[in-house]
Write a structure and sequence with these properties.
By secondary structure, this protein is α+β, with helices and mostly antiparallel strands. Helices cover 52% and strands 18% of the residues. It folds into four domains: 5-18 and 389-422, no CATH class; 26-55 and 268-383, Beta-Lactamase (2-Layer Sandwich); 73-266, 2-Layer Sandwich (Beta-Lactamase); 537-694, Heat Shock Protein 90 (2-Layer Sandwich), CATH 3.30.565.10. The protein has a five-stranded antiparallel sheet with strand order 2-1-7-6-5, sandwiched between helices. Strands 9-8-12-11-10 form a five-stranded antiparallel sheet. A five-stranded mixed sheet has the order 14-16-17-19-18. Strand 10 (333-341) and strand 11 (344-352) form a beta hairpin. Helix 1 packs antiparallel against helix 12 and helix 2 (74-94) packs across helix 5. It binds adenosine-5'-diphosphate (ADP) and magnesium ion.
C-alpha cells in the first residue's frame, strides 16, 4: 500500500496539513473553554453572588427598619396604652370593682367587658381586640402586609409576655387571607416571655432569630401540613423593643416572623439562570442556580433542590473543601472553580452575607453552573471546527489523490513501457503528453528504446556471423582431421602401385579399410552437427534400457579389446519412454568417452538400477578423470579436450535427455580413479486404457 506514490502523497498531505489543523482546532477549543470560564463565566458568577448577597443583606436590614419604624409609631404607643388601660380595667372587673372604681377612660368598656366575661360570651383574647387603637394597629399591619407580603406574623407583645395585638391576615400564594379564629386565640394565649428573643428585646436590643422552625409550627404550620416543610416552615424572627416616645424604658416588643419562602424566592431568582442564557442553545435552560448555607458554610438553608435542605456540604455532599475554602477566605467572597458534584463538573462562586454582629445572619450564598453549559458554545464551535477540519481533510485527500493520479499516471505508463521493453518489445513507444520532466523522460526513454533496438539488431547479426564462422571453422577442422590420413594412405597406395611393390594388394585392403573408417567418422561428424542444429524430430517409444545398453556395449566390443579394456555389465531391465535413436546416441557417446579416457586400458562398469520411479544408467571408467576445466564446461557445445572430438556429444546428450524428462551428470568416480556418468530417466508406466503416451 505504502509503495504507491499517490498513497505517500496523501499521507504527506495528511501529516503536513491536516494534523496541524486538527491540533490547532483542539488548541483553540481548549483555549476557548478556558477563556470563557475565566473571562466570562467566573466574573459573572462573582457578580451574581455578590449581588445576591447584597439583596439578602438588604432584605434583612429592611426587616429591622420595618419593625423599628412600627415600634416608633404613635399607633404602637397608643395600642400599648390601650392594653395598659384595659389591663387595669380588667383587673378591676375581675375583682368585681368595676362599678365602684370606674374611671372616665376605662369605664364604658371596662364594665361591659367584665359583664361579658362573666357571661362567658367572649374569650379573653378576642375581647382584647375590641380596643380601638389595637384594632387600628392591626388594620395598619394588614395594610402593610397587603402591600409587601414580607411577614407571616407581626406581634406586639407587652413587657409581661402577652400579645397586645397582631396582624389579622396572613399572606398566601394568592394574596392574603384572614387568620383563623383558633389561630388568633392560640396567639393570644401564647406566653411570649418564654421565647428566646423576649429577654433580649425587653432589655432593649434588636434581636434577629434564625428559628429554623417557626415557633408556631407545631400547632399551626404555615404550610398547613403537619409534617415539616423546610421551605415553608423555616422562619426568621425579628424583635424590636418598643420604648416610650422620649426614649425611656422598654414598654413592649414588636416581633415579626418572616416566612423562609421570602428568602427562598430571593435565592431562586430566575436572574441567575438568565445571566447565562447567552451561553447555551436558544431552546436550552442554563444550569446556573444559587443556594444558601448557614454561617458555618456547611448546612444548606436554601437550594433549588428541596432534597438538599439541611444537608451538610462537607459530611453529606462530600465537598468539605468547599466549606474550608469559604471559611478560610479573608474577604468573604471568591471562586470555587472546577469541582465535581452529582457527577457534574461545576464552577461556583460564593459570598458571605452580613455577620450576626453586623445586622445579618452570616449566611453564605453560592452560585454555580455546570461546565457543560460553559462549554456548550465552545462545543458548538468545536463541532464546527471539527466539521471544517473533516471537510478540509476530505478535500485535501481528494485533491491529493487527483494530483497524484495525474502525476503517477504517466509514471505508471512509463513503468509499463519499460517492462515491455525488458520483455523484448523494442517497438513499443510511449505517448508523450506532458511538457514537463515526465514528458522529457518519456522522450528519452523512447529514444533509448529505438537505440536499443538498432543495437540489438546489430548484436544479433554479429552473433549470427560469429556462430556461422565458428561452425564453419569447426566443420573445416573436423573434416580436415580424417582427410589427412586418407590422403597419406592414398599416396602410399599410389606409390605401391607405381613401383609394383609386393604386398600392394594388402596396402589396398588397408587403405580401403582406413578410408571406409574415416568416411564413417565423417558421417558421425555430420550427424553430430545435424543433431546439434536440432535437425531431427523426436519419435518416442517404449525402450528397454538394459537391452539397449547391452547393444551399445556390444558395438564397442572390438574397440574395447583393442584398448585392453575389460567391460562389466550389470543391472535390471527397465522400460522408459524415449526416442530410441537419440537415447542410443547418448549411450554411445558415454561409452566412447569412457573408452577414449582409457588409452592405456582399464575397466568399464555399465549398470542399470531402479531408483524410485526412475531408472539410473551408470557408466564408470577407470580412465584419466575430469579436469576442473572439463568439469566446468562439460555440457557446453564445442568443448572438447580431444583432437578428434567435436565437443558436441555431451551437449547433445543433455538436451536430448531433458527432452525425455531425464537428466545427466558426470562426476569423479568413487574411489578417485576415473569418471562416473549417471543418466536418470523416468520409468515408463503404460496406462491401463492402453492409450499410451504417443
Ligand atoms: P568429445 O567427446 O567430442 O570431446 P563430449 O561432449 O563427449 O565431446 O565430451 C566433452 C569433454 O568431456 C571431453 O572432451 C572430455 O574432456 C570430457 N569427458 C567426457 N567424458 C569423459 C570421461 N569419461 N572421462 C574423462 N573426460 C571425459
Ligand atoms: Mg564424445
Amino acid at each position: 500500500m505504502l509503495r504507491r506514490i499517490s498513497t505517500k502523497l496523501v499521507l504527506a498531505v495528511l501529516l503536513a496539513v491536516v494534523l496541524p489543523f486538527v491540533a490547532f482546532a483542539f488548541y483553540i477549543n481548549e483555549q476557548m473553554g478556558d477563556r470563557v470560564t475565566r473571562h466570562v463565566v467566573q466574573p459573572v458568577l462573582l457578580g451574581l453572588v455578590k449581588n445576591l448577597a447584597g439583596q439578602l443583606d438588604y432584605f434583612v436590614r429592611e426587616r429591622r427598619m420595618d419593625l423599628e419604624q412600627w415600634a416608633d409609631s404613635q399607633l404602637t404607643q397608643n395600642a400599648l396604652d390601650d392594653d395598659r388601660a384595659e389591663q387595669g380595667a380588667l383587673q378591676l372587673a375581675l375583682r368585681g370593682e368595676a362599678a365602684a372604681h370606674s374611671t372616665p377612660d376605662a369605664a364604658p368598656w371596662g364594665a361591659a367587658t367584665a359583664a361579658r366575661l362573666e357571661r362567658d360570651e367572649v374569650s379573653l383574647q378576642t375581647f382584647s381586640l375590641q380596643a380601638p387603637y389595637r384594632a387600628q394597629l392591626m388594620a395598619e399591619l394588614d395594610k402593610n402586609l397587603d402591600r409587601s407580603l414580607e411577614y407571616d406574623l407581626v406581634l406586639l407583645v407587652s413587657p409581661d409576655g402577652r400579645l397586645v395585638t397582631c396582624n389579622g391576615k396572613r399572606p398566601t400564594a394568592q394574596g392574603t387571607e384572614p387568620l383563623s379564629q383558633p389561630f388568633l386565640e392560640y396567639l393570644f394565649a401564647y406566653d411570649y416571655s418564654r421565647s428566646d428573643w423576649f429577654p433580649l428585646a425587653t432589655q432593649g436590643s434588636f434581636v434577629r432569630v434564625d428559628h429554623h422552625v417557626s415557633p408556631f409550627h407545631l400547632e399551626f404550620g404555615h404550610s398547613g401540613q403537619s409534617s415539616f416543610d423546610p421551605a415553608w416552615d423555616y422562619a426568621l424572627g425579628f424583635a424590636a423593643p418598643v420604648r416610650t416616645p422620649d426614649g425611656g424604658p422598654v414598654r413592649g416588643v414588636l416581633y415579626g416572623l418572616v416566612n423562609w419562602k421570602r428568602i427562598q424566592e430571593l435565592v431562586s431568582t430566575q436572574v441567575i439562570a438568565d445571566a447565562f442564557r447567552g451561553l447555551v442553545r436558544e431552546d436550552a435552560a442554563p444550569s446556573a442556580y444559587a443556594w444558601l448555607w448557614a454561617d458555618d458554610a456547611n448546612l444548606i438553608l436554601a437550594h433549588p433542590d428541596r432534597a438538599l435542605y439541611y444537608e451538610r456540604i462537607g459530611e453529606d455532599l462530600g465537598l468539605p473543601r468547599l466549606t474550608q475554602t469559604v471559611l478560610e477566605d479573608d474577604d468573604g467572597w471568591g471562586l470555587y472553580p472546577e469541582y465535581s458534584f452529582h457527577g457534574e463538573q461545576k464552577n461556583a462562586a460564593f459570598h458571605v452575607c452580613s455577620s450576626r454582629q453586623a445586622d445579618g445572619f452570616g449566611w453564605v450564598v453560592g452560585v454555580g453552573i455546570n461546565n457543560e453549559d460553559i462549554f456548550s458554545t465552545v462545543e458548538e464551535l468545536r463541532t464546527l471546527l471539527l466539521g471544517g477540519t473533516a471537510g478540509v481533510l476530505a478535500l485535501a485527500v481528494c485533491l491529493t489523490l487527483f494530483i497524484a493520479r495525474r502525476t503517477t499516471g504517466p509514471i505508471r505508463e512509463l513503468q509499463k513501457h519499460v517492462r515491455r521493453v525488458a520483455e523484448g518489445d523494442l517497438d513499443a513507444r510511449i505517448d508523450i503528453r506532458s511538457r514537463d520532466e515526465l514528458g522529457a523522460l518519456a522522450e528519452d526513454v523512447n529514444r533509448m528504446t529505438s537505440e536499443l533496438k538498432t543495437q540489438r539488431e546489430r548484436i544479433i547479426k554479429a552473433e549470427k556471423d560469429a556462430a556461422w564462422r565458428e561452425m564453419a571453422r569447426q566443420i573445416a577442422h573436423d573434416i580436415k582431421n580424417p582427410l589427412t590420413p586418407m590422403l597419406l594412405s592414398l599416396d602410399l597406395l599410389e606409390r605401391a602401385r607405381r613401383e609394383h611393390a609386393a604386398g600392394s594388394e594388402e596396402i589396398l585392403e588397408r587403405t580401403m579399410g582406413l578410408i571406409r573408417r574415416q568416411i564413417h567418422n565423417l558421417r558421425e561428424i555430420a550427424n553430430d552437427f545435424n543433431e546439434f542444429t536440432g535437425g531431427k524430430k523426436a519419435h518416442p517409444s517404449a525402450v528397454e534400457v538394459a537391452g539397449l545398453l547391452e547393444e551399445v556395449l556390444h558395438l564397442h566390443d572390438g574397440w574395447a579389446v583393442e584398448r585392453r579394456v575389460s567391460v562389466h555389465k550389470d543391472g535390471a531391465a527397465a522400460v522408459v519412454w524415449a526416442d530410441l535413436g537419440k537415447l542410443r546416441r547418448v549411450l554411445v557417446n558415454l561409452v566412447s568417452n569412457a573408452l577414449q579416457a582409457m588409452p592405456e586400458g582399464g575397466e568399464l562398469f555399465a549398470a542399470t538400477a531402479l531408483e524410485g520411479s526412475a531408472v539410473v544408467i551408470s557408466i564408470r571408467d577407470t580412465g584419466v578423470g575430469l579436469t576442473s576445466e572439463a568439469r566446468a564446461h562439460l555440457f557446453e557445445p564445442y568443448f572438447t579436450t580431444k583432437s578428434e572430438g567435436t565437443g558436441l556429444g555431451l551437449a547433445i546428450s543433455k538436451r536430448a535427455l531433458e527432452e525425455m524428462g531425464g537428466a545427466i551428470e558426470l562426476i569423479g568416480a568413487p574411489g578417485g580413479v576415473g569418471t562416473l556418468a549417471r543418466v536418470r530417466l523416468p520409468l515408463h508406466r503404460p496406462r491401463a486404457s492402453g492409450a499410451g503416451q504417443a
